Queue: 2 jobs
Job 1
Amino acid sequence: MAVNLPLPIAANLKPVAGIELGHAEAGIRKADRKDLLVMKLAAGATVAGVFTTNRFCAAPVQVCRAHLEGLRISGSPIRALVVNTGNANAGTGEAGLADANATCAALAELLDCEPSQILPFSTGVILEPLPVDRIKAGLPQALANLKPDNWHNAAVAIMTTDTQPKAASRTVLISGQTITLTGISKGAGMIRPNMATMLGFLATDAKVSQRVLEHLVKTAADKSFNCITIDGDTSTNDSFMLIATGVAQLDVTEIDSPEYAALSAAVIDLSQELAQMIVRDGEGATKFITITVEEGASVEECRKIAYSIGHSPLVKTAFFASDPNLGRILAAIGYAGVDDLDVSRLDLYLDDVWVAKHGGRNPDYREQDGQRVMKQSEITVRVKLGRGGASATVWTCDLSHDYVTINADYRS
Amino acid sequence: MAVNLPLPIAANLKPVAGIELGHAEAGIRKADRKDLLVMKLAAGATVAGVFTTNRFCAAPVQVCRAHLEGLRISGSPIRALVVNTGNANAGTGEAGLADANATCAALAELLDCEPSQILPFSTGVILEPLPVDRIKAGLPQALANLKPDNWHNAAVAIMTTDTQPKAASRTVLISGQTITLTGISKGAGMIRPNMATMLGFLATDAKVSQRVLEHLVKTAADKSFNCITIDGDTSTNDSFMLIATGVAQLDVTEIDSPEYAALSAAVIDLSQELAQMIVRDGEGATKFITITVEEGASVEECRKIAYSIGHSPLVKTAFFASDPNLGRILAAIGYAGVDDLDVSRLDLYLDDVWVAKHGGRNPDYREQDGQRVMKQSEITVRVKLGRGGASATVWTCDLSHDYVTINADYRS
């Protein structure tokens, strides 16, 4: 059950000039489901990405990194991205690398380019060999239906345990140019991104230089996908890719330009929506929780505390139960690892309800006020540390019976 | 449902000369249940403890620390410990400290000693005022039934969401003296001790100097209570206390003595049993998991990886489902924060089954072998890092529907 996550309507998803999307049913893990996606880029497009920090990063992540690094040297642009679901191609060693490279080679041959101009992505079960022959066999089908207005099918094709496809669009007017941005993302478990989330793709028709795009993708990831957690498990396959097709007239070459500021704001805004969609569709989620930690000495300590709250199974089950058992939040703050935290300066709010004051129960706090907020489907936890001017926000969901059911049944 | 946790039989729990235990039904949170415990010590007893590192440490923990510190100065020995369940007296600010001190004062008056000679302990709900009047009213009842062979009732009196009391005894022959050790502990959620567990009390009739006892309690905690996790939540009230009544003839005054070595081995052995009992009775536990990480460059990195596996909700739900979805273990190793980990040197075993070899799936691994082990109620995960000679072990349990049920219902 997703939390206030509207189904994307295909007609509302705007094509981005310079990118075509084609999907296939390749039977990678299950029959009769879209499980393969090709995104074909215009010749002048730039691509930048951020990837998981998991040491067991998947073979496709390693290949993506190598191809993006090679691009700096060769100058050969990326021509296509290929995504499969059903199998993560992670924990697969040398054979996995060969499989990811074979996928690139097969698509490159069909598109008449070099394998190094292809970026591969996988998501699904870890530690199982990639059925690369099925992927190869599915590629012609995906290429046959390449078209610009295929974002909805693309969002469906990258789903695993997601209950709903995740996609959104924006148009913004920058320096007199109408710029389109459309993105898709998928979750829904093993989500505590560190540099990027499971899979997110965001395309714009603006022209953005490689250097600027690399800066922008990091900035956007840090303000969106790097602020969410479902279960604290950082995936082996996290990837967030930003694509600028360069078909529109807007040309962004400098970071300190008004054009960059406007484009960056739009990219961050859309990235946050896509990231929050992952949380809203978190495995078993029934509540969407925003955790804001303010008045910290550093952003890092605010994030530590926000994640400590967001990862606590006790806090998350209390949200599931709509039980204002708010001492659990204090406990999670206390063990977050901020060693010199003076709890006597700390205040805690649940939406507008002042729960804890100077580290103890607020004398004016009434249980029924906490209860009222806990029953909502969207809740903000606000912690004021009284230590400085830094702040951080993390988005998460509750921990329900369905999380256990989904993850106990995922492979079976 | 506890995992292979035998009910302690009162007759098997050996009295420790020099300590008497009395319990009461004080109605602290619920009627008709044992919720107050007094442990009265012989005049020559020494006491040492380790406490939670949570910055929101509870009022009684703060008072314990102060009284143990004061003991170094005044030399006045600890005469009694008092434990209440139903209310943690944590997140209660100045009022909570006053309540903990009032508890000590009331018991001191009844025992004709100073309040600083009493150590108070609380466990239960956080952020609610301690009903100190009910505790005061219950103390005479607890004192009225003080007796040496009351360990079983003591174990029952400190339970919260525990499904079974936890207690065990040992007798060891050291330097010709028969020494008795008996201990009790309680869990069962908010368990990821950092210096000590929720509540553990271990008494021996050996005579142990204060300095040696302080060394021993830290050593024992590090090898037992600090190696367990249920949900990764470090409690506000964790306390592990070691009591040496000094009634027996054995006198341990030096750390590098054969007597210390023998006593230390017995204390660690019993501490491990008590700590493992907490995991076996972890909230909703259906499996008991031992995670051993070997061949690390340091104990610290082995512990990081072991806890990363032990805290992963995805790994824990896979154990609950008996599903050998073992890629989740690799993912948890990968995000443990060991930045220079070379996964191509890593091997993974599930009991005797070699699952991953050189960072990839072992070609000889068969799913049915993994399945066989996953169905067991006790499972060992063994990770070999190929980096050095350090190792660490962590004990944990699975994550089941009952964990969610228990924690969604705990207060309601």
Job 2
Amino acid sequence: MTPMPTPAAQTDLAAEMRAIGLAARAAGRSLARASRAAKDAALRAAATAIRDHAKTILAANAEDLTFAEGSRLSAAMLDRLRLDPGRIEAMARGLEEIAALADPVGSTIAEWTRPNGLHIARVRVPLGVIGVIYESRPNVTADAGGLCLKAGNAVILRGGSESFHSSGAIVACLHRGLAAAGLDGGAVQRVPTRDRDAVGLLLAMNDLVDIIVPRGGKSLIARVQKESRIPVIAHLEGNCHVYLHASADPAKAVALTVNAKMRRTGVCGAAETLLCDRSVAATLLPPVLAALIAAGCEIRGDAGVQRIESRAKAATPADWDTEYLDAILAVRVVAGLEDAILHIERHGSHHTEAIVAEDRAAAETFLERVDSAIVLHNASTQFADGGEFGMGAEIGISTGRLHARGPVGVEQLTTFKYVVHGDGQVRP
Amino acid sequence: MTPMPTPAAQTDLAAEMRAIGLAARAAGRSLARASRAAKDAALRAAATAIRDHAKTILAANAEDLTFAEGSRLSAAMLDRLRLDPGRIEAMARGLEEIAALADPVGSTIAEWTRPNGLHIARVRVPLGVIGVIYESRPNVTADAGGLCLKAGNAVILRGGSESFHSSGAIVACLHRGLAAAGLDGGAVQRVPTRDRDAVGLLLAMNDLVDIIVPRGGKSLIARVQKESRIPVIAHLEGNCHVYLHASADPAKAVALTVNAKMRRTGVCGAAETLLCDRSVAATLLPPVLAALIAAGCEIRGDAGVQRIESRAKAATPADWDTEYLDAILAVRVVAGLEDAILHIERHGSHHTEAIVAEDRAAAETFLERVDSAIVLHNASTQFADGGEFGMGAEIGISTGRLHARGPVGVEQLTTFKYVVHGDGQVRP
């Protein structure tokens, strides 16, 4: 059992964090040159270690759960924290899937030859050292560790204090994988204390850490964005919209809306607001809303919606700006395409929005004009996911505009450099 | 003549900056949908306006020069500030060259179809609103304004107070171009005051500005990186290296080193340190150092260099970390390839480094291992330039690792979104 930090340990925290950063920087330099074979061998050996040590991981998780039950964690948080044999197998399989992905490092993104004979290539290289700060789910330890390793980055993991022992047991398996492949164990490290001061220290190490990826609730992201001296790839909220255009196919409207809202209500790609063209509201909305209500969804509608569906509650202005992450849907009747686009511009979070329409021109206008990371035509917003995009696993979905937008997979965890070959060219 | 801010104007500065930001956001939304023809017409009309109003621009510049001569500006700063008919023509031609570049907006970076039939495309879109903060050179007003416009971004320009009137006259020409093409004048705005508080206000408008590009000296960049609540694409120093490998061709060694150091000493791609393998120092260095000295360069060498060239001064440890931007070169004898790579890792700024070598394997090791934005084999470091790379004009060279690394041209001033076409797919 890991002891809680004592005052003496507290004093040494800054030195300890710098030692972690220095070890990560050194491991990052060697990992950047590691072969695909070595990285994949490490990932597969880590998967095997997770299966072989499932009992140890479950015991560590039980310790975390005991600790958590003494605190005031919500049922949802407790569920996220809980591991079982299925979730452990999913972690192991996740690492094997990352091993099967193409290695982004060293690939040529573009190349060209200049009139003076200089050959210029833009070549993918690792980002360097990545700090991942997350909350209760212990499986993020394996996912984030595996993705960073595949992309040739060293990673410093700072999990939630409630998953402290679970994460430690999982990191031990990742270390077994690195050791089996002859790679530097410093490539995957975790902050070995529950002390929250460690986060502040990590966010200030801009000479040793190249990027911070926070995964968690709004208060965590806000703290990281405020304090970080290091660039942040942040996942803010997903206030996602489904828009039923006048040309929508009624069957698609029902299926897509119910799936976008109800398949899983707690994911960032879940729809939170439904917009429907006024001209078709009386015919299109009744079956859509009935299906949603039958599936257990609460409807909060404007006056137009309440006229159509008596079970709809009245929406307040705050509803248009709310990411429920729950079985609740705000519903509004709009004048048409332009009105829908303006509503999304005003209230959306630039994450994921879908139009249901048979009119191709209307769909193209929506896809072009709506300024979100992901825009879909006749498909569920719940496809907002790196795996569903064919990018393999993801470390999150970026709602920022720089570097990575949308799902952040192994490619997005790299940068590039320009490699120039000449034969003695000087600049005139 | 624009008055200096009064206390009353001061009070209104925050409101004025927000008004600029809101106008930029609105203009950015419409510019994102502008056709290539309209944007290029605006750029060409702006070029014509600059030629037509050359006298007005020169008169404004004369006013700035009078103001500057009263202050304590260095001769180099005064030279950067001074416009003449040649520099005005270069600005106009620069805008026409930007018009001739391909439009990055709307181009498909990648596309693929998933097994479930979803078609996914990664499509380039503008970044949004860009804030450019720069120092004395008034031509940055035209270059940055033109590049941002081409990439579909609205721009807020904050030039140095010494170039206040020159920049104003140039912005007026950009506005003539926008008007001639029927585009929103809010797409190019400048901060209409010399008040330095405006910078702080700009850096805090993270809801209205998507990215900040600082161009200038270390203190400006440091202030921006410290204060900004908006992501920054920063150009830090270029402490660039030339490394003469044991296999270097002697003639190339002389030509490349002299060009890398002396072609222009004030550019970021100018070499600041020369490394040479010990095994060939006695034969390779004498002609290289003699040519540099003949060209007016001061040599600061380690003991090995001073033995070879008596005119070399003694280098101090600080020399390895100094970006001279002057006719001074630090020179060091190294044990070999590994030693050279370690020296660059320890002292370099990750900007641009070159190896001179006929041994291809040694060159490849250098290009792979040296972690800089640009690495060159047998070519001058002074090729570190967007124009020389064939990217057209550039707004700067990024030494950061995220989003843009190396020259920042129109493509780097865009982001992307995922456009997904389905025919009713729901996620299982």
